[in-house]
Every structure is written in C-alpha cells, then in structure tokens.
Amino acid sequence: MNDAMAAMSGAMSDERVRNQKGAPPPHRLQRNKAIRLLSNARAHDPKDSELRIRHSDHAVREAADEKKRRRRRYPDTAESTGKHLVMAELLPRGFEAEFASASYENHDMLVRVRGAGANPIRIKTVHSGPWYVRWDLFAKRADQVTVYVLLGVDTATPARFFVVKNGDLATQFRQPPSWKAFGFIDVKSVEKYENNWDLLK
To answer: The pTM is what?
Structure first.
C-alpha cells in the first residue's frame, strides 16, 4: 500500500513539475510528434510535390492572365461603351443590330433594316478627339461605314455620333511625316455627319 501511494505521489509530483514548467502532457507530445512525422512524409511524397508544383504553375498563369486583363481593361473601356451606345441608338430607329463575331475581324457590328442583308460597320470611340485610325481604312475599305463616337470628358456630357463612309473622309485624314500606318481624324472633319443614321438604310 505504501509503495502504491509513493508511486502515485511521485506521478502527481512529476505532473506538477510539468505544469509548473509549462510542458505539455505526454499524449500531446506524442500527437505533436505524429503531426511532424506526417508533415515530413508529405514533404517527401513525390505526388504531393508534383501537386504543389502544378498549383504553383497555375498561380503563375493566373497572375499573367490578370496582368493581361489589367492592361486591356482601360483601353477597352471607351470602345466597349461606344459599341453599346451605338446599339442603343440603332434599335429605337428600327434597325436590327448585333455585335460582330470573330469572323468579322475588321468590323464591330452588323446592322440590318427591314430584313435586308447585314451591313458591317466599324465603331471608333474616344473621350475627346481626335480619333487615331489606320490609313488602310480609307485606302482599302472606302465604302465601309464607320461610326465615330465622342463620349466627352465627363458623364454629364451627352455622347455624339458621326456616321460616315470612309471614302468621304479620305481627304480629311491627317498623318504626321514620321507616322507610317496611322493617322488621325479630328472632330471638325466629321461634324457634318453627326447623327447621319440614314446612311445605314
């Protein structure tokens, strides 16, 4: 009996010492050790390493794609706004309109009226003039209709629309001597074509 009591007293004494020193009890030590062993095993598991590599590669690709989206986001804002505004102008006037698919590489919208064939058009949008355009718009596609959209510098300014055939602006195309493919069209050059929607009929 005395021996049992002495053993119990010793165990209690050891527990008090551990508690005083802040040491975790044995079952917690064993659990922590098991966790460490499992973590080490996973770190050396080829399948787990390959999974981490795949996740890392995916993250890199996602970051690259996000950078591309950020680069495109701001230049595309005005163009996207212009296209939707043109659509909003056409539909109440009795036109049928849809955004052009990828097969219409040099056009932004298909416009129809009274079941007639589709008329592909370009849409150029800026907040303030001029519009920067390629010379081949005028040299190769003189009969194509382009809608020049002027958004204005603030939201309180109503958008303006200028509807004109490329050939009608060929003499208004301005190109600095050092420029090769690009030039510009200023607002004054298109003012007489404002709201010239009947051109699409």
So the answer is: 0.61
